[in-house]
Every structure is written in structure tokens, then in C-alpha cells.
Amino acid sequence: MKKDGRSKYSYFSKMKGTTKSPPRVNLSEIAWSWVGGFLGIITVSYINYNILEGTDLILMIGSFGASAVLIYGAIKSPLAQPRNLIGGHVISAIIGVTCYQIFPDQVALASSLAVATAIAMMHATKTLHPPGGATSLIAVIGSTKIHSLGYLYALMPVGLGALVMLIVALLVNNIPKSRRYPEYWL
């Protein structure tokens, strides 16, 4: 026992959780999430692999997969709203590029700084979007093609790709009467 009367095990007891998991969503929600995810990613993929083929430009990055889960599968989440989608990705991309440019030969340090700073800045700007952490990391650990983009990375693939996915989310998520997206813009 510690002097304040709390057990040293109270820290670990916090890891038990306090409630049960939410109920399973209905089949309609699953179907519309699938349709949105499919259409969002295929649109970005089509542009990337067909329209931009033969150029040095890219539109597809891995963090868009996680964004798809949020903006098509968890549409009411504050983390899935347009401000968070666009702002979280773009801010994180700028931070990732900056960290890489300052520490190009220290990937572990640049990666850690990029992700941690992206989290802090997304919090500070009310744009928290978990895939943004991956976007900042990709700026550091990405290919030579990503590194050669410099700050253009924040506009394309990141900004434009997120905007394409947002447009698909606005169109698809508002088709069924049971869904409405977004909850808010600002």
C-alpha cells in the first residue's frame, strides 16, 4: 500500500474497462459502409493508376484505407467529419515532410517526431483524424517518389485524395434515409 491509501494495483485495474462493447450494426449499415468504402477507394485508385499513370504524381497512400473506415463506416464519429478528414491529413502531411527534411538521416527520430507532433497539432486545431498519424509517418518512411514531392505531398496525394474520398462520402452516405453525413463542417 502507498501512503495515500491506494493500492499499487489501481493503475492496472484501470485497464479492465468500464462497459461492454456497443451492439452490432444492422445489415443495411454494413452494406452502405461497404459500398462507400469500395467506391471511395476505387475512385482514388482509378485516378492514381489510370489518369496519373506515366506521371511522377500519385494519389493513393495507405492511410486512406483507415480514413475509409471512418468516413464510410463510422460516419457519426467526430473523427470522421470533413474538418477532421481534410485538416488532419493535410496538417499531418506538412509535419511529416518537415520532420523528414530536418532529419533525413535519422528516420527513427523523424518518424517519432512526425507522429507525435501530428497528434498534438491535430488536437490543437480540432482536426484529430487517426489516419493522419499514418500520413505523417508515410512522409518520413515513404519511397523516393514520396520524398521527392516535398510539400506538394500535402496537396497531392494527401489533400486531393482526401477531397475525392470526401466527395464520395457526401454522395454515398446520404443516399439511404437512415444515414446522414456530415454531422458538422466546422
UniProtKB/TrEMBL annotation:
<keyword id="KW-1133">Transmembrane helix</keyword>
<feature type="transmembrane region" description="Helical">
    <location>
        <begin position="30"/>
        <end position="51"/>
    </location>
</feature>
<keyword id="KW-0812">Transmembrane</keyword>
<feature type="domain" description="HPP transmembrane region">
    <location>
        <begin position="22"/>
        <end position="182"/>
    </location>
</feature>
<feature type="transmembrane region" description="Helical">
    <location>
        <begin position="57"/>
        <end position="75"/>
    </location>
</feature>
<feature type="transmembrane region" description="Helical">
    <location>
        <begin position="151"/>
        <end position="172"/>
    </location>
</feature>
<dbReference type="Pfam" id="PF04982">
    <property type="entry name" value="TM_HPP"/>
</dbReference>
<feature type="transmembrane region" description="Helical">
    <location>
        <begin position="84"/>
        <end position="103"/>
    </location>
</feature>
<dbReference type="InterPro" id="IPR058581">
    <property type="entry name" value="TM_HPP"/>
</dbReference>
<protein>
    <submittedName>
        <fullName>HPP family protein</fullName>
    </submittedName>
</protein>
<keyword id="KW-0472">Membrane</keyword>
<dbReference type="InterPro" id="IPR007065">
    <property type="entry name" value="HPP"/>
</dbReference>
